[in-house]
Amino acid sequence: MGGICMTLPLKLTPAETALLDALEGATGWRAATRKALENRGLPNKRDEAWKWTDLRRLTGNITEAGTIAITGSREPDAKLPITHAPTDMLPRLAGALGGEARIYTLSEGESLSLEVTASVGVGHAIYVVEVPTGVSAQVRERLCVADGGFANIAVLYRIGEGASLDRIVTTGNCPGILAQSGGVDLGEGASLRQTTLTFGGKLVRLETHLAHPGTKADAVMDAVYLLAPNRHADLTTTAILTGPDGTLSQLTKGAVASHGHGVFQGKIHVEREAQRTDARMTHRALLLGDRAEVDAKPELEIYADDVQCAHGNALGAIDETALFYMRQRGLPEAQARAILIRSFLGEPLDRIRDPELRDLLIEDLTKGLEALS
Amino acid sequence: MPMLDISNLHASVDNGEKPILKGLDLSVPKGEVHAIMGPNGSGKSTLSYVLTGRDGYDVTEGKVSFEGEDIGDLEPEERAARGLYLSFQYPVEIPGVPTLTFIRESLNAQRKARGEEEVSAPDFMRLIREKAAILNVSMDMLKRPVNVGFSGGEKKRMEILQALVLEPRFLILDETDSGLDIDALKVVSDGVNALRSPDRAMLVITHYQRLLDYIAPDKVHVMSAGRIVASGGPELAKELEAEGYDKYVRAA
């Protein structure tokens, strides 16, 4: 007798029902988004890309409409309706429900600051940053979601030929649920230096999807996470290299207290045309207590034969010998621990090119460590 | 009253499973330098860790008094603030922490614990320059992360430099001569001798007599199987050098 194959209808969470209501009567790709949500629900642990970050479960009862305030160091250059559907569920929802996209077109030497603050309830937002050909600029995004909030933010960066962007993303000591999906299209010969610093939240998921053309373009995607008890941070990146002579370097470091949960998923995909690619990805984390949890999945998928690619992943505890050495010199245990964690986590931040930005992030990290001890 | 007074000390590692010290008695008066010599595995390094309070080294019996105070329950940093200093056999590398910062924070943590004023940045720089000169330690080395990439000799010089800055009341030198060539040994010994004072005492742990040619001890103790099995003057070190530890190992 053959098996019975049937699909049980998904039992929707209150949050999903509220999203479906918000999309009631939608047309075109918005209607398709609604259908997909109805069938599959919000991302959850049964989706391979979300197996350690169960957004569906944690957003379950958040139904009221929230707001997302974006305070920029200046006004956007344009606000445009979304015409093309993004691929993944969350950016699709952000596109469908986040209103018009704010477009920022950066000028040479510009330093744009965006403060994104989300209230209680569900909010969506979408913004686009364009770095025109040959322009060098900086963007600093500071994201914070209130307790009881779920902010779904989609971002797109278009970095033109020969342009250079330093992007800093920080999430403060904020308790809510934050999902940011970031697409980055890198032009020929362009340079991206991206550094993320997060202290997690009830759930923080920061995604970067890099389209890398090779062609002497150079990308750095570094990240630091420091998680107190009951904080969750998920750093997920994909990079697709499509042409020859590209470089990519990723260094992610984390430290997690008991009952904190860190996730790192990094995928580098090197296409057959991407000869002489140099791509490196390292993830290292410190488990600060017996009940700390870190899950990591570094992946390399290489179809070119003349490449230099490497990945490394290591989890460990604080070096007890070093801790004793420092205490023997008179440093109290908490201070000695903080110094060791700080020196471990500092490495990606030390790679930030701009000294002012670097100092700001190191200061944020130091404050985070003080709060932890 | 001796400065350091150890009586019937028993200590174990591996959660009490493995006894290392088995009834050790030792008294070191203020102003004196005592040497402890013994074969590998006799418990010399364990003694240094027990005295400084390292986790995992459990006292199961007996007592350690420092200046009349039972220090058995004190944390390592509390013992450090009271003036106990251990020069490590294998100084630890701490990437990402500049040596200058580390020494200054250590000094200020100790001073704070004693209720003293912190040392200002300019005063600290004057102090460290003065002490570094004694040990031929360059400012360049002090800017590098603690012990990272240092040679064995450089690490030992750094240990003694930290002692010169922290000015402990009691120094334990654990195999300070290991890994040193003769020139480095002289520099390190000069540093140690600069710390000799009527108010300070030292315990020099060593396998070989060589170091004691440079740091002349007032007394020499032989350690074997977790106990002091013989004590005498400096001539005892010479005898051990000539005849080896055999008769003491058997006696234990």
Strand numbers in spatial order across the main sheet of chain B = 6-9-10-3-11-12
Number of β-strand runs of chain A: 18
Structural class of chain B: alpha/beta
Beta-strand percentage range of chain B:
25-35%
Instruction: Specify Rg of chain B, calculated over alpha carbons.
Output: 18 Å
| Percentage of residues in DSSP E strands of chain A | 35-45%
Shape of chain A: globular
Topology of helices and strands:
The complex is a heterodimer of chains A (373) and B (252).
Chain A: H1 14-22, H2 28-40, H3 55-59, E1 68-72, E2 78-80, H4 89-97, E3 101-105, E4 111-118, E5 121-131, E6 136-145, E7 149-159, E8 164-171, E9 177-186, E10 191-198, E11 203-212, E12 218-227, E13 232-241, E14 247-256, E15 261-270, E16 278-287, E17 293-302, E18 308-316, H5 320-328, H6 333-350, H7 355-372
Parallel strand pairs in A: 3-5, 4-6, 5-7, 6-8, 7-9, 8-10, 9-11, 10-12, 11-13, 12-14, 13-15, 14-16, 15-17, 16-18
Antiparallel strand pairs in A: 1-4, 2-3
Helix pairs in contact in A: 2-4, 5-6, 6-7
Chain B: E1 4-13, E2 18-28, E3 33-37, H1 44-52, E4 58-66, E5 69-70, H2 76-81, E6 84-87, E7 94-98, H3 99-113, H4 121-134, H5 139-143, E8 145-146, H6 152-166, E9 170-174, H7 182-194, E10 201-206, E11 219-224, E12 227-232, H8 235-243, H9 246-251
Parallel strand pairs in B: 3-10, 3-11, 6-9, 9-10
Antiparallel strand pairs in B: 1-2, 1-4, 4-5, 7-8, 11-12
Helix pairs in contact in B: 6-7
Polypeptide structure, described:
The complex is a heterodimer of chains A (373) and B (252). Chain A is of the alpha/beta class and 373 residues long. Helix content of chain A is 22%, strand content 42%. Chain A has 7 helices and 18 strands. Chain A has helices at 14-22, 28-40, 55-59, 89-97, 320-328, 333-350, 355-372; strands spanning 68-72, 78-80, 101-105, 111-118, 121-131, 136-145, 149-159, 164-171, 177-186, 191-198, 203-212, 218-227, 232-241, 247-256, 261-270, 278-287, 293-302, 308-316. In chain A, strands 1-4-6-8-10-12-14-16-18 form a 9-stranded mixed beta sheet, with helices on one face. In chain A, helix 2 packs across helix 4, helix 5 (320-328) crosses helix 6 (333-350) and helix 6 packs antiparallel against helix 7 (355-372). Chain A is globular and about 70 Å long. Chain B has 252 residues and is an alpha/beta fold. Chain B is 37% helix and 28% strand. Chain B has 9 helices and 12 strands. Chain B has helices at 44-52, 76-81, 99-113, 121-134, 139-143, 152-166, 182-194, 235-243, 246-251, and strands at residues 4-13, 18-28, 33-37, 58-66, 69-70, 84-87, 94-98, 145-146, 170-174, 201-206, 219-224, 227-232. In chain B, helix 6 (152-166) runs parallel beside helix 7 (182-194). The two termini of chain B are 28 Å apart. The relative contact order of chain B is 0.18. The mean pLDDT of chain B is 93. The interface between A and B is medium-sized, with 23 and 29 residues.
